[in-house]
Each structure stands twice: as structure tokens, then as C-alpha cells.
Structure prediction request, 96 residues.
Amino acid sequence: MISKSDIKKLAHLARIDIPEAEEEPLHHDLERILAYVGELQKVDTEMLDARARGTGLKNVMQPDAKKPALPSDPAELLAAAPDHDGRYVRVRSVWS
Prediction:
């Protein structure tokens, strides 16, 4: 199915270096992978819907709804802040 020269060409294209000691195990692994893919290609899938899901799960999403991101009342914003000074929200200093 796949030759050692094919593996060397793929390694060159992928810009990876395969040590000689790893060539034979890699060749064996790739042969097994390609054989498995060949088995999968034999499966008759004509009767299956391409959009069918094997798990039966459905996408759950909330409908889009326009709502304000923040309260429009400044007093509500200040009340929601952990600390404030008059009209300003107090935050920790970013300078050490």
C-alpha cells in the first residue's frame, strides 16, 4: 500500500525528520491505518442521511433578544460596583 519512499516523500513535504530507527515502525503503523480506512470505505452509507447525528443530541441555543448590556440608570451602575466614590467607581490601582 505505502512504500518507504512514499514515507520519505511525506516526511519531506511535512518538513519532519524521521530517524532510520523509526522508519519501520512508522511504515507498519501507516499500513495498519490505511488498511483500516480501506475497511471503512467498504461500508455502505447510501441509506444514511449525511446530516444524521449518531448521538441524537441537538444544538441548544437561546433565541437572540435585544436587551441592554448595562443598566441605563447611573445610580444602578454605582450600586452594582463593589466600591465607589461619589459618581465614580473605585478600582484597584494597576501600578505597583
